[in-house]
Amino acid sequence: MAESCRIIALGGLGEVGKNMTVYECGDDIVVVDAGLAFPRDEHLGVDLVLPDFSYLRDRASAIRAVILTHGHEDHVGSLPYLLREVGVPEVWATRLTLGLIKSKLDEHGLLRSVELREADPDGPPAELGVFRAEFVRVAHSIPDSVAIVLDTPGGTILHTGDYKMDHTPVDGLRTDVGRLAEIGNRGIDLFLGDSTNAERPGVTGSERLVGEAFRQLIPPRTGRILVASFASNVHRMQQAIDVAVEVGRKVCVVGRSMRKNVNIARNLGYIDVPDETLIRPNELDEYAPGDVMILCTGSQGEPLSALVRIAYGDHPAIKVEAGDTVIISAKPVPGNELRVHDAINQLARDGAEVLHQENAPVHVSGHGNAEELRTMLALVRPKTVMPVHGEFRMLAAHARLAVEGGIPENRILIAENGSVVELDESGAYLTDNVESGVTFVDGLGVGDVQDVALRDRRHLSEDGVLIIVATLGGSNGSVGRPELIARGFAEPGEPLLDEMRAEAERVLDDLVHEHVTEIKLLQEHLHDGLGQLIYDRTGRRPMILPVVVEV
Ligand SMILES: [Zn+2]
Ligand SMILES: [Zn+2]
Question: Which pLDDT tens digit goes with each residue over 185-234?
Fold first, then answer.
């Protein structure tokens, strides 16, 4: 029997977020990345969105390892849930990624449930059942990112992870183009490549450009400097810290996730900051505004983040005022633009000058643009290309780049979450589909938000709610005058309210007359009668909650 390998993306295709790819060969499975997505507006009130683990749950005993390409939430965020629900013997990741997930797993009480193994780009490959995994350094917006070369009985696969071709990265660790070319010479049968910036022409700026901008913008300023970025952007924070040290400002790190990451990165030697430079938020009062720099979370305008609380005068230790400068050193993730704009407006109203990517070069992307993707394809020269990590338009743009680079059109696979790709000596083909939905994390529970709950929330937000409370009187079976509470579709004092009350009374009287005293039936009739009336008058279908109580 010819050996083949099945490749199944459970997340990350047709979306930016929750990356997770299953590689399956006989009785062995290796999973690359276990990410999560942040909810979009249609997932009202849900905290997190995870891939659907059903496919893995059914094959848990086959899983040899999870390999993580880097420490971003869209690649590691669902790991605790995967470990708890499915169980995995080993997790392989580079040193910083391991440091970040250790703290995450510790918070979830899962540290002892899995063996953590260090992936070393300079070390020997990992042997995982029938698979052999090599790690190749790539530059990205978090240190210690790797691409993975997976040798499988069906052929050799390159999974790029997130990357850019930064030739002057802050840590000097460039994308290892020499190694990629070597791997290309060995022959890559299937290439799964990051498509995030495939639509953008040219080359992404080097991370070092942001450092240069900091060096120009920060020294002449005399007020407080606040720098908001992603808590995982270790190099960005390092570059801000370097300028603070040069100009003699103390640095205060604010926001739980940022403090945590700075500690982890410092302990592992990924951030270099002198002890005497760091101060605590409660020490800020002892320094003049011009002597401090505040690194904070909130670059996405997250409602409870440090920057947003500061902007709205709601932070216990920090305020901004005229003369201060706020640098938003990140790009809003699609969907967060309005919140970021609100935060910028509020900071401006407080008197601060706000620098962001539209008025100053204070951010560069962590993903390669079109020319970099072309370079990657030219180095690797894969037989088959499968664009991953991106919305459909980004995958399509990546596919076009591959065709322009000489990959035959029939050697490009545009797959979706749940698509099954089979790779064997004859090539790689889309063959099947598996279940690949989403799982919601709502508060503390996983997967307990059914579609019904989401439908109800949408319903409430769009059409409002009507609560009808009626009492069913003891021995004589009479009904009291119903109380109505309406929100979202009828203004107080509107004639509709009186009309609804009259209708509720009529419905109840009719039923009691017919000796119907079954509470459930009374509630159903109230629901239907008032629903019809409201729809006739307003064209809306608010959620109607009839409550009939026996007294
Ligand atoms: Zn990333
Ligand atoms: Zn990513």
Answer: 999 999 999 999 999 999 999 999 999 999 999 999 999 999 999 999 99
> Tell me, what's the pLDDT at 179?
97
Alpha-carbon span 177 to 232, nearest angstrom: 25
Alpha carbon of 58 to ligand 1 centroid (Å) = 29
Asked whether 235 and 169 are in contact (CB, 8 A), the reply is yes
In the predicted structure, residue 42 carries a pLDDT above the cut 90? no
Asked if pLDDT for residue 444 goes beyond 60, the answer is: no
Distance CA 479, CA 508 (A): 7
Q: Which are the catalytic amino acids?
A: 194, 367
The 3-state DSSP class for residue 527 equals helix
Closest CA to 543 of 535, 438, 551, 291: 535
Query: Which ligand number lies closest to the CA of residue 12?
Result: 2
Q: What is the pTM of this model?
A: 0.82
Contact 297, 254 (CB under 8 A): yes
Cα of 422 vs centre of ligand 2, distance in Å, is 24
Q: Which residues of 360-377 are buried (b: 16+ CB within 10 A; e: fewer)?
A: bebbbbbbbbbebbbbbb
pLDDT at residue number 435: 80
Ligand nearest to the CA of 70: 1
> How far is residue 459's CA from residue 149's CA, in Å, rounded to a whole number?
47
Dihedral sign of CA atoms 282, 285, 287, 289 in order: positive
Report the alpha-carbon distance of residue 212 to residue 42 in Å, rounded: 40
Under 8 Å CB-to-CB from 128, ≥6 apart: which residues? Answer: 28, 30, 64, 65, 67, 90, 92
CA of 507 to the centre of ligand 2 (A): 57
pLDDT tens, 8-25?
Answer: 999 999 988 899 999 999
* Residue 49 pLDDT class (50, 70, 90 cuts): confident
Q: Which residue has the tokens 């596919």?
A: 399
Q: How far apart are CA 158 and CA 152, in angstroms?
A: 11
The beta strand positions in 139-242, using DSSP E, are 145-152, 155-159, 190-194, 225-228
Cα of 196 to ligand 2 centre, how many Å? 8
Number of H-type helices and E-type strands within the chain: 15, 26
Distance, in Å, from the CA atom of 120 to the CA atom of 406, rounded to the nearest integer, reads 33
